[in-house]
Amino acid sequence: MKSxxxxxxxxxxxxxxxxxxxxxxxxxxxxxxxxxxxxxxxxPVLNAFVEGVNKENLEDKVSVTQTGCIGICQYEPVVExxxxxxxxxxxxKMTPEKAQEVIEKHLKGGQVVGDYTIGAVTA
Length: 123
Known about the structure:
Blueprint lengths: L3 H12 L11 E6 L2 H6 L1 H14 L6 E6 L11 E4 L6 E3 L4 H13 L9 H5 L1
Parallel strand pairs: 1-2
Antiparallel strand pairs: 1-3, 3-4
């Protein structure tokens, strides 16, 4: 690296690939990435959220992070969505395809995808 312009170019290239940020206001998507979550397929789910948020240009409004054990291993992969002024939404048994639907309907459209929530699975 020889200049600040070169450093800025690297930052701009990486911004499109990484949405894993903390300390951001707005909606937070948290993917359980403990051993049980990873074994159940959480890594592709995390990747689907990161790529989908970037693709839909939501990176200024939505952060995607990972956490350890959420405590409901039988429902992995688990994704929690935290929105200011609202109760968290817990999505369970997630897949990359379900993640795309959550991005489209919930993160973009503001409508919880009820069929994928813990309430729908345990009812």
